[in-house]
Specification:
about 210 residues; alpha/beta; nine-stranded mixed sheet; 6 helices; 13 strands
């Protein structure tokens, strides 16, 4: 079972349906005992980084996510959920993140283009990953965002896109994964990312 962390923000139901389409057993929940039994965790999010962290902290789910990470449970952050994996964000008044990945989230430099960046964008891989098995290179994925992650370690970067400036679209460090795109809105290849993550969760706990 894969637990989708419910802290009240994000397009949670569409992510549930997308995982179900690839044959994964998922539960959308804020119940700590259920999340502690999960073979993997999914952190979704749409909205502002500071508010998301306030909600996670108030519910104690930030500590649970860190504890499950320390136990080796695979975790993937989607869209804002990926940004929350990093140490901090400059969005609005700024906020500290979960700190599972080194780096900061900063405003995308669109170089004269409109923000937020909304739409399909070609993403090119920097290295191979279990998350990208069967996914073409480059691949078109659907994005909706104004802020982007800047990992401290370049080795954490799986794939990059470009909208004005280059931005990080996919990351991986150990059992932590992140997708700035919306896999649930990215058609066949977005579903491939979710299918691969489900297989990673199954392999870790086989």
């Amino acid at each position: 079972m894969i637990g989708i962390v419910d802290y009240g923000m994000g397009n949670r139901r569409s992510v549930v349906k997308a995982f179900e389409r690839v044959g994964a057993h998922v539960e959308l929940t804020s119940d700590e005992s259920t999340l502690e039994r999960a073979n993997g965790l999914v952190l979704v999010g749409v909205g502002a980084f500071p508010e998301a962290m306030r909600r996670l902290t108030a519910s104690g789910l930030d500590a649970l996510i860190r504890a499950r990470h320390d136990a080796g449970v695979p975790l993937i952050g989607l869209c804002l959920g990926m940004q929350l994996l990093f140490e901090r964000s400059e969005e609005h008044e700024g906020a500290e993140g979960l700190g599972l990945l080194g780096g900061e989230v900063r405003r995308l430099d669109p170089q004269g283009r409109k923000l937020p960046h909304i739409g399909w964008n070609l993403v090119r891989r920097r290295r191979d990953s279990r998350l990208l098995e069967g996914v073409p290179d480059p691949v078109a994925l659907y994005h909706v965002h104004t802020f982007v992650a800047h990992p401290t370690d370049p080795e954490d970067v799986l794939a990059v896109g470009e909208y004005g400036a280059e931005f990080v679209s996919l990351v991986e460090r150990g059992t932590v994964f992140g997708a700035q795109c919306h896999p649930e809105k990215s058609s066949t290849h977005g579903l491939d990312l979710l299918r691969n993550f489900a297989a990673i969760c199954q392999a870790v706990h086989a």
